[in-house]
Amino acid sequence: MEEERAEIALLTRQTTQESIVDYLRKLILSHQLRSGERLVQSELAEELGVSRTPVREALHQLASEGLVTLSAYKGASVTDFSLRDLEEIYCVRIALEGYAANLATQFISNDDFQQLEALVSQMKEMFRLGDRLQLLEVNRDFYSFLYAIPNQQRLYEMIMQHLDLANVYRRMAFSLDSVYMSTVADHEELLSALRRHDAQAAENLTRLWLQETADALIRLLREMD
């Protein structure tokens, strides 16, 4: 009985923590909490009607996502997003990923195409469910698979490094309806280019979407200043 009660208490705490993470993430990504704003555990706990423990764990989770910065001296605060950092990351992504999409179109096999189709089907399901974070994860899986097709290891590693560096900005982008609502249609258009083995179209589409995403994020960051 005691063990069962402990499991129930753990489940309740985890559920509370997840709710706090979702709540704070939404406030940050919608810039209701601004860059550099302090997140005081005691104040958040009182506001949300919970103990400090799930708040502290939620802040650590958000720190792992890059949305919160933790300091031994200043405590927790919303990450101070850098416009220059964003521009530099997306400049590299546009160049590398456009080239990789071009190469992938030249080397893609039927099995590769079927795998990419399956991932787009998963994206459709996540979109139907309204699960933006899971859609983002499947989106990453799609590009991880696509960019591995040319079998150029250094190119692939550089792309995935910058894709992960852009993780916090990608999360921000998927909070924007202008990006989120077009995701599935964009990938279906890319599948069509891959099916036709139209390397230039695949490159142009990839570069265009990344530039449009960067532009939307730049506008968002400027609004947050």
What is the terminal separation in angstroms?
Answer: 53 Å
Beta-strand content: under 5%
User: What's the gyration radius in Å?
Assistant: 20 Å
The CATH homologous superfamily of the largest domain corresponds to: GntR ligand-binding domain-like
Strand order of the largest sheet: 1-3-2
Broad structural category: mainly alpha
Average of pLDDT: 88
CATH architecture of the largest domain: Up-down Bundle
Query: Please, how many helices?
Result: 11
CATH class of the largest domain: Mainly Alpha
Largest β sheet strand count, sense and barrel closure: 3 strands, antiparallel
Q: Tell me the series of helices and strands, N- to C-terminal.
A: HEHHEEHHHHHHHH
Explain the overall architecture.
The chain is built from eleven helices and three strands, in the order αβααββαααααααα. It is elongated, with a radius of gyration of 20 Å. It has two domains: 77 residues, Orthogonal Bundle (Arc Repressor Mutant, subunit A), CATH 1.10.10; 142 residues, Four Helix Bundle (Hemerythrin (Met), subunit A) (Up-down Bundle). Helix 5 runs antiparallel to helix 6 and helix 6 runs antiparallel to helix 7. Strands 1-3-2 form a three-stranded antiparallel sheet. The protein is mainly α and 225 residues long.
